Amino acid sequence: MIMIDIDHFNVFNDTYGHDMGDKVLSEIGAFIQEHVRDEDIACRYGGEEIIIILPGASLQNTHQRAEQLRTGIEGLAVEMYDEEHTVTASLGLAIFPEHGATIKEVIRAADAALYEAKNKGRNRVVIAVKSLSASCKDKGEDIS
Length: 144
Fold this sequence. Notes:
Blueprint: E1 2-6, H1 9-16, H2 18-34, E2 41-44, E3 49-53, H3 59-75, E4 78-80, E5 83-85, E6 89-93, H4 103-119, E7 125-127, H5 132-138
Parallel strand pairs: 6-7
Antiparallel strand pairs: 1-3, 1-6, 2-3, 4-5
Helix pairs in contact: 1-2
């Protein structure tokens, strides 16, 4: 799973208005739809967040895809009021079962990774920390 958040989107909305913010989201959404596999599911998740579910994708493939999306979004030029503007995005990624045993845990892990990407300066991809239950399973320990 990849969780994407448009950097400084609230400032963008306040500066250019919600119609232009919607235009940015639409253009990014169209870009994402063009760059995901047929079996992937991309959807809006809250205000300016987008989630992409990549069934069967490995951590390495998910990370590569996230980095491709990040650089692609960074390269988009959105025209507003006869000027071209660029936006960046922060991405957090997590996969099942390494980062959670349930969809809620995986979403939480991706969200935490996204938060870390923003705290580290934005416009980057961060992989979630392995869940406690997955770490214990790797070591053969039972935490139940």
